[in-house]
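Title: Request for sanity check on Histidine ammonia-lyase prediction

Description:
We are preparing a figure and want to confirm that the structure record we downloaded matches what your pipeline produces today. Could someone re-run it with the sequence below and paste the raw structure tokens into this thread? We only need the token string, no images.
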Amino acid sequence: MTALTERQELQRLADLVRAAAFGAVLRPCGPEEAAAMRVSAAGLAEALAAKDPVYGVTQGFGPLVVYEAADSPVEQGGGLISHLGSGQGRPLPPEASRLAVWLRLNSMRLGYSAVSPEFWQGLADLWNRGFTPVIPRDGTVSASGDLQPLAHAALSHAGTGEAWTRDRAGRWGRVPAAEALAAIGASPVEWSAREALAFVNGTSVGLAVSVLNHQEVLRLARAVAMLTGRVVRLLGASPEAYHTGVARARGQAGQFTAARWVRDELPAGHAREPSRPLQEPYSLRCVPQVVGAVLDQLAAAEAILLTEAAGCTDNPVYVDGKILHGGNFHAMPVGLCSDQLGLCLQQLAYLADRQLALICAPSGNGGLPPMLTPRPGGGSGLAGVQISSTSFVSRIRQLVYPSSLTALPTNGGNQDHVPMALNGANAVADALEPAWLVVGSLAVGVAQLTALSADRPRPEPGGVWADLAEISPPLEADRPLAPEVRAASALCARAAADLLGEEDGSPGGGGR
């Protein structure tokens, strides 16, 4: 059997996100894919005719595998998605839900799941027509895949629960799933045992959230490097730490890219001011090493996540004429990647917070006033902003504690080793907001550093630094800076996305 994937089109996670975006079209099965699906479905039929035991089809689920399944495959499939409908919490964003279903369909189309191409095409048609299930984010251990969230997605397809709708202005809303199906002229899906199992047995939800997190952490890294370059320029710090020769001496790929990103913000001929130390504190001098290490980890995670997206995460699988019972639904590859994304995110936020501390102190900002206020004592400048930034970093550290270290056995001892991949991915997603607020806090600091610098560079009209100056004008008197931090966060996120779009889009791309 030849199992075709979309690997040719999906060379990067950014390609995957675009392929699963609202309005994209999931291509139909090719002839070889359809043939492989038919072969596996026929193999399952033969096993059933021979009265061979098949997990979830002739036998029960989990520890109940020792008992016979319901006589009706539809009753068995319906029972599966019903008893797993125990998820709770706020729903995943619609983008994550669409990506999760896309990934599930990509797994099922490979010919290992014994699902007919006709059934698969019915699900693909719903996806192409915009049907998007509302999926609660909490309640899975990600061991037999993300059972609970995928069961809620299956229930939505069956007309139970809720679905997302999108108006002409692009705003998402929630309606009963049956109403959403009726609005597109579709009938509820009837889940037979094998089809239901193939849909819920998979790592696709944690994978979807991790893919989106990965892209956001990459943007965060680009923003921190951009701000670092601006700080180096404003302070007149030495550019030697960002020289390509330093990266060449070590040889780590990400370091080349991170150093170049910092150099992008420096004018030609930038040199160390005589008043600056020969070697800056590590929060400036070691940015290529820290951001570069993050980029290398992101590149490694991207390869693993892309492989996961292109593979079959189901159980059992039909391979070379045999039904094989195994554990491809175990989400450890995703879980460890997600844990690493959280650690990378924390490093970036910690680095930005330390740079904010540096420019707020006269010992680091070249003798400018403390807290970058023009009226020390009568004014407090960025004192509140820095305190909040410290709080954000602490919160991030609480959130990104590796979820793989919090595993507990469950399911009557059947699932005695679990990865907690979606829990981890959700926590990283939650940590992204405070991380961007730390970046926004540093950006407001950069705006005030610019305002207090006598020989500050004049930003070009319409550029990111000109926009930042408008967001956070000079502090003639203290004012609430929370709105400016949020606006600066959004500005940096947009600028980072634009800069990455101009490059090759890969975490360590174009380094040397």
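Thanks, this matches our download. Strands lie at 88-91, 132-133, 136-138, 162-166, 172-176, 317-319, 322-324.
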